[in-house]
Structure formats: structure tokens, C-alpha cells
Amino acid sequence: MAQVFVDTSAFFPLIVQDQLEYPAARRVLDQLREEDAELVTSSYVLHESVTLLHRRCGISAVRDWQNIMHPILRIVWVDEEIHRHAMIALLASGSRRISLTDWVSFEVMRRERIGRAFTFDDDFRGRGFDTIP
């Protein structure tokens, strides 16, 4: 079974359907489910997604995320070692552009040997991962 890492930038338009990315996000999710791909995310992406939805859209969007997305995901819970490696990468990069959550995502993808990310964030491609759409 193929694994695909799912980023906040994919979750948001799936829940907030008036987003420009919604049609593409819906197509990709349907395709991945048809392929029986394992959808993987991290606890940091979970936190980031829920925080973004709560802040911008309210509790009903969080409830939708919990009811729609959470059941179809495998969540990798970030431990101290993953966090430390991501923090080292963040500090070494010297850049404000890539967030700690993204560095954690890259680390989780490497550890889990996941080569594809469902994301609208070009930073994943820039770090050597295949992205969809």
C-alpha cells in the first residue's frame, strides 16, 4: 500500500470548500482513496490544521475536520527526537520561510520512507519529495 503524507495546505481546502484549491484537493483525495493509499500526517500538522481551522472558521470547521479527516488518517505522533532533528534543520536553514511544522513533516516523511506529499506547499518539492496535485 502506498503512503502519502498529508499537509495542512491540503486539509484546509477540503474542509473550507470555498477555497480556490478545493476542486483539485477533492480530486486528489478521491484518487488517493480509490488507490487505497495510506494517508499519513504528523501530530504537528494535526495541531496546525485544527488551530488554523478554529481561528479562521470556528468550532464547526474543527468538528468537520475531526469527523471527516481524522478517521482516514494514520497520525505519527512527534516525539522528542523528531522534534529535535526538525529544530536543528530549522536553525541550520536560517530561513523564515519554512516552518517548524514543515521541518517536522520532512523528518517524518524521511523516517517513514514516504516519498509523496498531498500538499499545495512548494517547499516539499524543494526538499526532494514528490507532490500531488
Computed CA radius of gyration, to the nearest angstrom: 14 Å
H and E string: EHHEHHEHHEHE
CATH superfamily: 5'-nuclease
Domain unit count = 1
> What is the CATH first-level class name?
Alpha Beta
**Uncertain ranges:** none
Number of helices: 7
Strand content: 5-15%
What general outline do the C-alpha atoms trace?
Answer: globular
Number of strands: 5
**CATH topology tier name:** Rossmann fold
Average per-residue pLDDT, rounded, comes to 97
Which second-level CATH architecture applies? 3-Layer(aba) Sandwich
Placed side by side, the strands forming the largest sheet appear as: 3-2-1-4-5
Topology:
Elements: E1 3-6, H1 8-15, H2 22-34, E2 38-42, H3 43-57, H4 59-68, E3 73-76, H5 80-93, H6 100-112, E4 116-118, H7 123-126, E5 130-132
Parallel strand pairs: 1-2, 1-4, 2-3, 4-5
Helix pairs in contact: 1-3, 3-4, 5-6
